[in-house]
Amino acid sequence: MVATLVRVLLMTFVWGALHGSFGVGTLLVGAVFSVAILRLSRPLFNPEEDNVAGDGRPLRRAWRSVVLVFVFLRELLVSAVEVAWYVLQPSLTIRPAIVRYPLSVQTDREITMLANMISLTPGTLSMDVAPDRSAIYVHAISVSSDDGQEVIDDIKGSLEKHIHRALGPSD
Prior knowledge:
This protein is 60% helix and 11% strand. The chain is built from six helices and three strands. It has helices at residues 2-19, 24-41, 47-50, 58-88, 108-120, 149-167, and strands at residues 97-102, 124-129, 135-140. It has a three-stranded antiparallel sheet. The two termini are 19 Å apart.
């Protein structure tokens, strides 16, 4: 109940900000639309699977989502600089490889978010998810070891950890 109320208030505030007016009428219409959107999107979230709706800590989850966005932007910037460095070198010294990345995340939403963030990061591309959902196959532009452990460590230490905190089951 508290989580729903916080979501309605946040969405109503965004509605008012987008309209440039925080008048009573604007906020009332925003609240009605917020409630309608939350009611219509409720079937998209399965509380038994990942406990998002029953978390009871929407502000903590929202903060973790903001942190995830900043971690992704940092990874995006670092990867873009690395790829630009490869492009600007007079000789091509890359060593591309396909790395089997073992998954720690469990829900479909977490796996999808991780695969998308890997694909959006320059120099990496998620190719496939193992049928048993235990791994993602990632194409990396350059790896220094035969097993691609540095790619695994990089993704595990940044993206996967923060995706699990923001989107995973509550602890």
